[in-house]
Design a protein that fits this description.
Elements (H helix, E strand, L loop, with lengths): L27 H11 L6 H7 L13 H11 L3 H7 L2 E2 L11 E4 L2 E4 L12 H6 L64 H10 L7 H6 L10 H14 L9 H4 L5 H16 L3 H12 L4 H17 L5 H10 L8 E2 L4 E5 H7 L3 H11 L4 E7 L2 E7 H12 L1 E3 H8 L3 H9 L9 H7 L3 E3 H14 L9 E3 H4 L10 H9 L5 E3 L8 E4 L23 E3 H8 L3 H9 L5 E3 L4 E4 H10 E2 L1 H8 L3 H10 L9 E2 H7 L4
Antiparallel strand pairs: 1-2, 2-3, 4-5, 5-7, 6-7, 8-9, 10-12, 11-12, 13-15, 14-15, 16-17
Helix pairs in contact: 2-3, 3-4, 6-10, 8-10, 8-12, 11-12, 12-13, 18-22, 23-24, 26-27
Protein name: TniQ protein
Amino acid sequence: MDARSIPAHAPPRRHLRFALDLRDDESVPGAIARAVAEHHLVRIGAVLKGSGHGRYAGATQLADATTLRRIAQVIRCDPQHLVTQAGRRLVEPGDRRLQHFVDFDGLVVPSGHLELKRRRIAPGALLASPHHRQDWMLNVLPYSTETLERLVDECPACGVALGWTRSVGIGRCEHCLATVPPSPLPSLPAELAADYRLFASLVSLRSAGRAAAVEALAPRLRDMTSGGLARFAMRLGLDCGEDEGRRAWQTRAGHMSPERLARTVCRGIGLLRTWPEGIVEWAQERVDHARDESACRRDLNRRIRRIAWGDSGFEDQRELVHEAFPAFASPRARADLGGRLYTGREADRILPGFATHAPEIRRLGLVTSRSDGARGTMESFIYHSAPIDAAGASWRDATPVTTIIARLGLPLYAVEQMIGSGLLGLHDDPILAVVMRRRQAVASIFDDLLARLRRRARRRAPPSSTLPIGWESRRIGGGPKPWSEIFHGLLDGRIPFWLDGEPDAEHFFVERNGLDAFIDRPPPVHSENRPLSPAMSTGDAAELLNVVPNHVVRLASAGVLTRTVGLRAMTIARDEVERLARHHVSPAELARRARTSAEAVNDRLRIAGFTSFHGLWDRTAALDALPLA
C-alpha cells in the first residue's frame, strides 16, 4: 500500500452524547461506570469495545496512556486528566518476579494491594458525591476516610459481589438493581480516625495529599517516600503489637481483618509521629513490666530484627531502626566470612528467587557460603551478604531486555545497538543472571531515556505530512538499521519528531524523508563487549529485510534461510539474514524509496525484464532501475 494512502490519524471514535466532568479523586472504572449510568445505558462493555480495550473494566485503572485517551474520547472527558488518574505497571506481567508493583505518580504500590475486579464502595460517602473514589481500590484501606464506615463489596440483598460489568449507578447492585445500604458492621473507632486518615494519605493514589502527610510525621522521616513510610508503619504496627502470626507488608496486609488492619496501621503511625522516642519508650515499658526480663529482651530483639530486616531490601528503614537502637546487633554478624551473613530465607528477601537457585549459585562459587548444619533432612547454608546485597540492588533496578523490546516496538538488534552506544544499560551481575535467566537492562536508564524522548518531542499534534518512524524506517535496507544513531538524532534535535501516544516505533512521527540521512550507511559498529546475538527471531528478520513475517517463513520453506528451534520460538542465523539483505531488496522497501505501491514496483521490474528471487529483487539492479524519491 502506498504510504500516502494511509491516514496520519484514525477516524474519530463514536462517543457518548454528553461530556463527563471527571472528579479529581475518581477511579478510571468509576468514571466509565458513571458515564454509562448517566446516559441510561447498562453495559460498561459498550465503552470498552468502543475504545478498543478488551479486558475487564477494573483493569482500565492500569491501562496505558493510548488506551486511556481512547476511553476519554468515548466518554467525553479530558484525556490528560484521565491519564493522570491511572497507574503504570513498573514490572511487565510477563516478568518472572515474585511481586509486581504499580506506580501512581511517585507512589509505588504492590499490585496485590489493588482490588480491580470488585467494586468497593462507601454508601454514606456516595450521598455526598456519587462517584467512585480511587482510594477505595486499595484493600489496605477497609474504611472510608470520609465517613469512617466499612467499605462494602457485595450486595446484602442478593449476596452477589459488586463488579464492573454493568452500571446503574455506583451505589446500586448491578445484579438486582437494589441500592446498597451502608455496612451494618461497626465503623472505625473515633479514637483511630486521625492516625487512619494520615495512613490513608500516605498511600493515597493522588499525589496532592501525600506530601502533607509526610510533613505530619517526625522530622527525621521526611527523607523517606510516602510509600516507604506506609510500609514502615505497617511493619511497626505488626511487630509492636501483641498478636503474633505471619508478618509481611507486601503479601499479608490485605488479608487481615479490617479492624485488626486499621489498629495495626494506626499503631505504626503513632510510632512514626514520635520517632524515635516513641518506639524506644515502648521497648523500655515492655522491659519494665516484664515478669521475665531476660525472655522479654530476647523477644524485643526478635521484634526489632523483624522491623529492621523483615523488609530487608530497604536500607533506609534499616538505618532508622539502628539509629533508634544503636546497640542492636545485625543478624548473624561474623568476621570469618567478611561481615554480615544471611540465611537462605534472609537472602531470598533481599533477592527474590535466590533460594530456588541457591544450589547453582553455590556450585558456580558466586557467593561465599558455608554449611550451617542440618535442618531436618535438608542441609542449611549461610551466605556472605555483600554480593547478595549488590544483586538485590540490581534486581530492584532491572527490567528484562524483552520488555524494552516490546515497549519500544523495536527488534532485539536495535536494543543491542542502544546498549552498545550507552543509550541503555545492561546488568552484568552474575548472581542476577542466574536468578533471572533472561538478560536484564537497567530500568532507571531506560526510564530516563523515555523521559528525555518525551521532553524532546514537539508539543503539537503530528502534521498530516508525517509518518510513524517504524514505517519511514523501511526506506533503510541492506543490513541492520542504525537504530542507535536514529535515537541519538531524535535526542539531539537533528531529527524533528512528534509523539502521539506511548513512546514506541508506531507513535513516534517523523517527516517524510526524515531518515534519509541513514540510507546507504555502512552497518553499525558494535563494541566488542556487547556481542550481537547469533540468531534472530522471525519478526526481527522480517524487520531487517523490510518484509512481513510470513515472507520470512516462505523464504525458509524455500531453503533460502534456515530456521531452527530456539528457546522460545523459531530462530534464524543472523549472518544468513544480513547476507540476504545485502544482495536483495524487498518490494516494500522499494515502494517506500519510490513513494509508490509494492504492486507498482513489481509490475515495473517485471516489464523491465527482471526476475524475482522468491519475492525479492536484486538490490543493485532494482535501485538503479527505479526513480527513487
